[in-house]
Amino acid sequence: MPNNPILKSNRLNNLTYAIRGPVFEKAQQLEALGQKIINLNIGNPAPFGFDVPDEIVYDMIMNIRNAQGYSHHLGIFSARKAVMHYTQQIGIQGVTIDDIFIGNGVSELIVMTMQALLNDDDEILVPSPDYPLWTTAVALSGGKPVHYICDEESDWNPDLDDIRRKITRKTKGIVVINPNNPTGAVYEDDILKGIVKIAEEHNLIVFADEIYDKILYDGRKHTPIATLSNDVFFMTFGGLSKNYRAAGFRGGWIIMSGAKHRAKSLVEGITLLASLRLCANVPTQYAIQTALGGYQSINDLVAPEGRLCKQRDLVYYKMTDIPGITCVKPKGALYLFPKIDLKKFSFKDDEQFTFDLLCEQKVLVVSGTGFNYHKPDHFRIVFLPTTEELEIATNRIRAFLDGVRIKNEELVLA
User: Exposure string (b/e) for 341-378, b if CB count within 10 Å is 16 or more?
Assistant: First the structure.
C-alpha cells in the first residue's frame, strides 16, 4: 500500500504565530518537566486575576436558556443594538443595526473579512510591527500582506510617506491597530487624518482594529478613525476580550461605516460567510449589551492608582534601567516593546534572546520579529501579572542580560 505523507496546504507554508510558536512550545516542555515559567507572552487577562465584571456573568447565566438555539447569523438584536448605540457615543455617524456583525471574537471576524474581500495577490497594507493575525489572515486568504513602517523615533506612529510608497494598483485596504499591539502606541490625530486622506485618494478600505480603545493611560484620549470621514469605507473591530477581560467568551463585532454604498458586494460576501458558520456563540452575545451599557470598570484599572497603570510603570522603569535596553513608554494596551542593543550582547537576533532567556531564567516573552517587525532587536512583554511577579520577572531579565554583557566584555578584553 502507498505510504505517501499527507501534506498541509501550501497556503500555510511560511505562516507563523510566534505568540504560540517554537519558544512557547519549549516553555510547554519545560513546564511538563515541572519547571515554573513566568508567562509574559500573551494578553490573556483571566489567569492574572482580572475577572469579568459580575454583572456580565450574571446576565449570561440568566439568559442561558434563551441561548440554546442558533441566533440570527449577524447576531442577536440586543447585542447589535448595543454596539450601534456605542457608535453614537463615540461619534461614528450613520451606523444602523444592519451595519453590525457579531462574531466569535475579533480574530474570527478578521479572517472572515479577508476571505470575503481578497482575490489572489490582492494587497493589504499592514503595520510593522503588527498583531500577527492580520498578516496571517491576509496570506491565508490568498492575498499579500505589505508592511508599512511604524516609527519608533516618533512614538511608534505610522510613517505616512512609507504608506504612500507601498500603495500599488493591487492595494485594497490599510490596517490600523490603535491602540497598538505590540507597541502600546496611541496614534496622534494628525497621523490618523493623514491615513484617512491617503485612503480617500486611493479608494482604500480602512480596517480599524480598536480592541483596546478603553485601555489608555496618563489621560490619553483615543480617536476612532471612523469618526474622521464619511467618504471612506471603514470596518471597525471591537470586542469584550480586553476592555472587559472576557477573552475566553469570544465576543467581538465589526462596525461598518462611512462610504457603505461602495461595499455592498463585500458585505454580501461577509454575510454569506457569517451564514455558513451559522452564528456566533449565543451566550456571550447576551453579555454585550450589559458590558457596553454598564459600569466601565476598566477606567479604574487604567487610572494612575489602578492596577494596570501601576504594572505598566513598574515594567517600564525596570526595563529602561537595564543597560542596553530602551523602550517607548506605552500610552495604551497591555504591552511594552523594548529594544535590545545587540552590540552590547552576543545574541544573533531577538529569537535567540527569547529562547536563551526562557531556558536560563524561565521567563517567556515574544520576539519582535514575531510581530513582523523588520529589525531583529525587539521583544514584547505583557504586563498583566501582579507587581510582585513582574518584579521577579524583570529582575530575572536584568540578571540574564547583565550576565551576557559581562561575558562579552570579558571576551573583548581577553
Answer: ebeebebeebbebbbbbbeebbbbbbbbbbbbbeebbb
